Amino acid sequence: MSYIKLDYNYTMSEFLENGLTDEELEESKDAAKKGLSDFITLSEESEVGFSHLPEFDLSQIKETVKASKGQYNDLIIVGIGGSSLGVEAVTNALLPHGYNALSFGERGCLPRVWFADNVDSHKLYWILKKCEAEDTLVCVITKSGSTVETISNFSIIYKWLNENLKNPFSHIYVITDPEKGPLREFAEMHNIKTFSIPSNVGGRFSVLSPVGIVPSAILGLDVDRMMEGAEEIVKSEKEKILHLSAIYLSFIKRGLNINVMMPYTSRLKSFCEWFSQLWSESLGKRYTKDGSEIHAGTTPVGAVGANDQHSQLQLYKEGPSDKLITFLELGSHDFDAEIQAGFHPEFSYLTGHSLGQLMNYELHATELSLRKAGKPSLKLVMDGVDECSVGKLFMLMQYVVAVTGLSMDINPFDQPGVEEGKHFAYGMLGREGFEGKKKEFDDQYIKSDEYFL
């Protein structure tokens, strides 16, 4: 079984000037214990469901995928935010680099994968340009069934399917709410294959639901192993969850308002984007649960080692002391290659080392450099990147963010701050019921030519 270890040495005063004291960490851990207790209550009462996802019966998904294997050259995933970021993080971590450039045979008769997430006409044009409708499966993901970006992209893809196929509906999977929503109505009307997102699982917590599991299975990933890893976190890692939540809480209390996630592997770059949504939407809240104004939240930043040693590290070391950095280290790197630098004597010191060793040496060097500058960092160490470890990583961070939010007396499961912008957009689009927002926008979206150059 794979592992994830927490190394928080360089957050503590024993090793770091002005680091956390044992008493400070224990105080935050007490708060985290209350947050975890609140979470367990919400979970037991089925108010929040992501921790129950490892119990999900995958047989229907696996049977559907098995029946369709070899039929499709391309998979287009249509979704945005929580309906896209997690799936993309999984595929970028677990599929070969440059996967779409492999031949059908090299891919094991599995489809290429494309993400129609943003409403970017250039991107969507070239996705469809590269695909043939008869060889394409479209997976539409939206919990509400009405996400404007997803429905807009799907409308164009559906038109493309309809123009090229006698039965476009057999080339569509829908992943949405189990009971309601216009997309479910459309799917049931046309006998389209559907998978349900549990009603108590929010979008940013849904990567281990059919949102992430269906596309992962289509692409040949071992979803059972992914769920096994997630389940181990649920059953056996409460102490790790408490410690990591307590560390984050401690530095939030200290006013460090930037939270950097920095894996030392390119395979987890998209994980940083997923984590940014999870952290931002869950913890960025104006009000506590009792209505007190708090303006909680810190800003997540994604970085990748060793690349961003050459771009962001200068700021992290010598800039403001407003950041906590979470490194991700791999115990082993797939296809690790020995460096052969005998072509010039200047580089002979590299010979005999491997790329994986170099990556980890650079991480350790960065840790020490930041420690000497009094800048705190912690580290999650994974034995490698596979389905089990990825399942663990997703579940661990979902737990930690949920517990951190509940410990701060905020609701980490809603996102009221994004609603008004949606409503203004609906008004501009002429959606029924949003005429007032259209008028409000027209009255208040005012700018002066004085401030244009």
Characteristic terms for this protein:
globular; Rossmann fold; 15 helices; 5-stranded parallel sheet; 5-stranded mixed sheet; SIS_PGI_2; alpha/beta; 12% strand; glucose-6-phosphate isomerase activity; SIS_PGI_1; 453 residues
Descriptive report:
The chain has 453 residues and is of the alpha/beta class. The chain folds into 2 domains: 4-42 and 227-407, 3-Layer(aba) Sandwich (Rossmann fold), CATH 3.40.50; 51-222, Glucose-6-phosphate isomerase like protein, domain 1 (Rossmann fold), CATH 3.40.50.10490. The chain is built from 15 helices and 10 strands. It has helices spanning 22-44, 59-68, 85-94, 121-130, 148-164, 182-189, 210-218, 223-236, 238-253, 269-283, 313-318, 355-372, 387-407, 419-429, 435-444; strands at 4-7, 74-78, 112-116, 136-141, 172-176, 193-196, 258-263, 299-302, 323-330, 377-382. A 5-stranded mixed sheet has the order 1-10-9-7-8, with helices on both faces. α5 links the parallel β4 (136-141) and β5. α1 packs across α13 (387-407), α2 runs parallel beside α7 and α9 (238-253) crosses α13 (387-407). The longest helix is centred in the N-terminal third of the chain and has 23 residues, at 22-44. It is found in: Cytoplasm.
